[in-house]
């Protein structure tokens, strides 16, 4: 311990090194936000979707089974799991949500034969079990909110999030009909969308409805999220206790070391 | 160095506390791994109750349906097969199914015919010896293994024999009567296997 | 109770007389320098993660289906139908990324404190082999879920071998066992991932530790405690600056484990995808040999090396240069002990040139990583406005490649020609509480 005082004033220039590393980390930091909204052309609307809101999930499920399941299956999702997680009874699910006569324990399969669908729409409507995992909740929300009438498109509709989408807009009765206002002088650049014919819902109601639908599909993408959140807090608290004890134990033993 | 007083009791206490909490943590962490061996949601869905119509099963015929991957025999027993049942009692291990075979059927099937309705036998077709599937030998005629055969089951593996109610004969390797699953009638000619009558959904 | 235990212990010791000496040699009488700092947690944490990967991996194989038709569905089966399957899979996927976090920091620690220098060259070489095998292990594991990123990642990385002149295309077909990644590829990767490479990895880890315990641990001061005075409160013969690994470093590492598990658990339970960095969005789409994901890139821990391939141009009619450079970037790490001729180990007492150089090296590594991950594609337009992005990416990336290799050239010259002005190294280790 004699040398200790002499070497107390060392390593000022380790700071150089940390400065350089910090600069490099800046690149990563800047990316965190960019990465979240990755690659979907930017300008996505924040969905505000949450799998923690059970009422929202229930409303979303109702919308899904009224408007979507005719074409889009959820082949990894079992009705029974959904009933359990969404706080619905078997009877409610089988009467209000299951229109195909599928088994309660079975997966959500669309009633439409995919070969037929492929002929109508040019390609089979995709299964949506993992849609939110693959594309993100914000993308889906934006997609559901940016359909507009486009006479040049084969489906009669177009979409800002997915240009030339094959799907005709199934929720138009709810949202109404949007048309595009073009960027002056730039041909096909859409400047904004305008509600040219109101639907059954006000814009605020429609946004809430699509938020519900997005939440529901986010839940379907990863039903385990509900369990994760439920157990996660307890695991963290437990580990915090363990870490505290281990810290005290370390302090106690290291009293020997000088 | 080395002349400090070590507080041994505090050290022991902290070691024990950390070890205990850590041990609880390891055990708790093991639970999900152990539970992952339980039947999965898919296995449970495959094991869901099976509904079967009885309309196409003719007199004296047997139909095999799969429930939880097990073969379930459904037999439309003839009046003569039924009439022969009481006569077998002295030759059986547990004719009333109240001894060694007391647990081999639900209470509502603990009777002479081991069924809810006498003519319809619903039974898991697994030999109670080592798990083979016995052959249905329904005709009441002399057989090489029994000159006095009154219809029943003959296991190809170790030659265990059962009567037309799945009751095991004496002096064969199998110890118990064959298992009757929980089942109920949804209507006169439809059974649902895997559900007790009171659990109507 | 205690009597029973000690008599069982005696029974075993009598029949396996080597056990207790081994325990003493590696635990209670392994004298580690007493001045380890934060950077010294990552070795034991790497062992922890290795154990986690093996245990969770074994349980994943119980429900995973290694076939092109069934793999993707079986992962969803694990995530949804198997009880607690989601937790086991997230532990494995999070563990994979954290493995690299821990290993990168562990390697960086070695560079910072000169732990690769004499007499620890073998420890470093074995460690580098572990890193190499770990990369192969991670790559093959990444292919197994058979999402679209798995498929195209496999295709692109296997195609790296196709740039080798003459035998390249045959080599690619041989690795895949097909003309596209398919059943054959998936099955052999599965076999290698679950048994072959883990065995090699375990063996290397044992050798790495054995080699370390032979020469003893380095420390943040780079002082050889075995050459210093002897005699401490546990032994008159042991180094004065050494403390028994057990209990002092076992309890310290236990605290490190607790803290690390807190971080890991937070990720597993609240952000298992980490915004697409640990589990990529495009891997939620089943493998599709007709559609390449719009942003094809490897997982974050490969992006630095991938970035090199991206910016190296083809010339003389072959793309092999980028691949050579990439493998060179890994190979040069093996040579650290011989490139760095400096006698002083720890960064604390080394010249400013080393500190700046190491900073530049880290900057180049992270810069290449950002490029490989597609981060620069996003932030350059934000920072610099309307630019020729491809040219910027290329120039930036090539500059980073030059800095990466330049560090090693500089380090050699700096230490070989005696340009380094070091500070006096103390005789004994220093403590900072």
CATH topology of the largest domain in chain C: Cytochrome Bc1 Complex, Chain C
Q: List the helices and strands of chain A in order.
A: HHEHHEHHHEEHEEHH
List the total number of helices of chain C: 16
Class computed from helices, strands and strand pairing of chain C: mainly alpha
Low-confidence stretches of chain C: none
Q: In terms of quaternary structure, what is this?
A: heterotrimer
The whole-angstrom Rg of chain C is 24 Å
- From the spread of the alpha carbons, the general shape of chain C counts as globular
Describe the strand arrangement of the main beta sheet of chain A, using strand numbers. 1-2
Mean pLDDT of chain A: 83
The separation of the N and C termini of chain C measures: 40 Å
Q: Low-confidence runs of chain A (pLDDT<50, min 5 residues)?
A: 1-14, 30-41
Mean of all residue-level pLDDT scores of chain C: 94
Determine and state the CATH class of the largest domain in chain C. Answer: Mainly Alpha
